[in-house]
Amino acid sequence: MSSDLPAPSSITSLPQEQQFRVLDTLFESSPELHTLMAPVLANQTFSSYSTLIDAVGGRMSALSAANSSKDRDILVGILGSHPRLGQPKGAPTEHLSELSKKEQANLNTGAEEQAEKLKRMNAEYEEKFPGLRFVTFVNGRNRDAIMEEMRERIDRGDADREVEEIIQTVLSHSGTIFRSQDAYYQHFSITQTGFDLWLLKEYLFMGSLNTLQASLKLACETTREVSHR
């Protein structure tokens, strides 16, 4: 899947297939998310990717608050589309978002014993919370840290809280990088192009989100200093 994204203001005029590709770049590919957001993408204009991510968050929160089993099934379908953390080496990754590809690469290092333990804990989590996948903001943490958090959430056993935490993590997962990107574009008055997204992709594969944010902040501060001389 290409990581190139169109200008956010142009999304409403794109063919539906391209609109869905935008969603699949920002989030994990999900038919339920496509169905949920199709009318929004067709009728609402977005000034930035941050506002699009917020719109997705608003729709998911509305599903979470609803008492309808149908709405709950749609939400679980969206949240359950996230890949299992630490999936086997060599497993297909073309369907994953760029952030998930990097997370999987970071977690697929270390002893096989750890990999087997993570696999067992994924199964235990999914038995505890049917339809969900364990989702967390990896951001460079190792398997031991991830499994410690997973154990705490399994033992807590609160399905409603789990859904809310996954929603917030999914939004943060996408929002952190693209809010930084939006700030960068606004500061330098740059139009979102394939080249700009290529640069973003390089950061995703070469460094952590913290590295990207620090680099963007430094670039903005350096430009301010130069302009004030």
TrEMBL record:
Domain Oxo-4-hydroxy-4-carboxy-5-ureidoimidazoline decarboxylase: 13-170
Gene Ontology biological process terms in this record: purine nucleobase metabolic process
Pfam family, one: OHCU_decarbox
Biased composition (Basic and acidic residues): 95-104
Keyword annotations: Purine metabolism
Region (Disordered): 81-108
Record carries keyword Transferase: no
Domain of life: Eukaryota
InterPro entries (UniProt xref): OHCU_decarboxylase, OHCU_decarboxylase_sf
Name used for this protein in its record: Oxo-4-hydroxy-4-carboxy-5-ureidoimidazoline decarboxylase domain-containing protein
Biological source species: Aspergillus kawachii
